[in-house]
Design goal:
Shape: globular
Low-confidence stretches: none
Strand content: 15-25%
Helix content: 25-40%
Largest sheet: 5 strands, parallel
CATH superfamily: Flavodoxin domain
Distance between the termini: 13 Å
Number of strands: 7
Bound molecules: flavin mononucleotide
Length: about 200
């Protein structure tokens, strides 16, 4: 079985439309019987922004190449997963700050990336990341959409070859029923699940 890490940043938890999409997608994966899915709910991790002491400790550990320290657990789990699913709502043109804090925890030289004379390159095992998001307005394909585009760029940095985004937009515009918009995104999710 392939190991899937599900990073849940759906802040509104069970009220979240993004979480509904993610649940649908994960259920499609479960039906195949091919994946072992582990959920990391960022809302339950008590994470805070990275501050000065954190960097001192990180530098000391990295100098000793001590990657076993618990503070690197997020980076280790991310780097070791075969596939990744990340779900977060579209907030202020990108995603909640909590997801950025998580990403800052992932960026550990020696675990998720390495560097040589040519520059840095990703060292994650995973070959596919699916990002799931919902937006109140319409931003897909515009320069103001910096959630999916940022996550795609991070995939490149981490060495993850394939990236897909499942998104539903215009959910807060009152133009079309939310359930229908979500249903369309679920159809998109079905296809991506087949080729995961
Ligand atoms: C703090 C906050 C910021 C938001 N910023 C945007 C935004 O910049 N653009 C947008 O289209 N919708 C924005 N929205 C609306 C959400 O993207 C939309 O309601 C989304 O479906 C919420 O996902 P959820 O139901 O999973 O929580 C924002 C909502 C919140 C709570």
């Amino acid at each position: 079985m392939e190991k899937v890490l599900f990073v849940n940043c759906c802040i509104r938890k069970e009220d979240s439309r993004t979480k509904k999409l993610a649940d649908f997608f994960l259920n499609e994966l479960k039906k195949t019987g091919a994946y072992e899915i582990t959920e990391l709910s960022l809302m339950d991790e008590g994470m805070t922004y990275l501050s000065e002491g954190f960097f001192h400790q990180r530098d000391e550990l990295l100098a000793k190449k001590d990657f076993s320290h618990p503070r690197f657990r997020y980076a280790r789990a991310f780097a070791q997963a075969d596939k990744l699913v990340v779900a977060a709502p579209f907030w202020d043109l990108s995603f909640p700050a909590l997801l950025k804090v998580y990403i800052e925890n992932l960026c550990v030289e020696g675990i998720t990336f390495a560097c040589n004379e040519q520059g840095c390159f990703g060292t994650c095992k995973g070959d596919h990341l699916v990002y799931i998001t919902t937006r109140g307005g319409f931003y897909e394909g515009t320069p103001m959409e910096m959630g999916s585009r940022y996550i795609e760029a991070m995939c490149g940095f981490f060495g993850i070859q394939r990236y897909d985004c499942i998104s539903a937009e215009g959910l807060d515009m009152g133009l079309r029923p939310v359930d229908i918009i979500l249903q369309e995104a679920m159809e998109q999710g079905k296809e991506i699940a087949v080729n995961f």
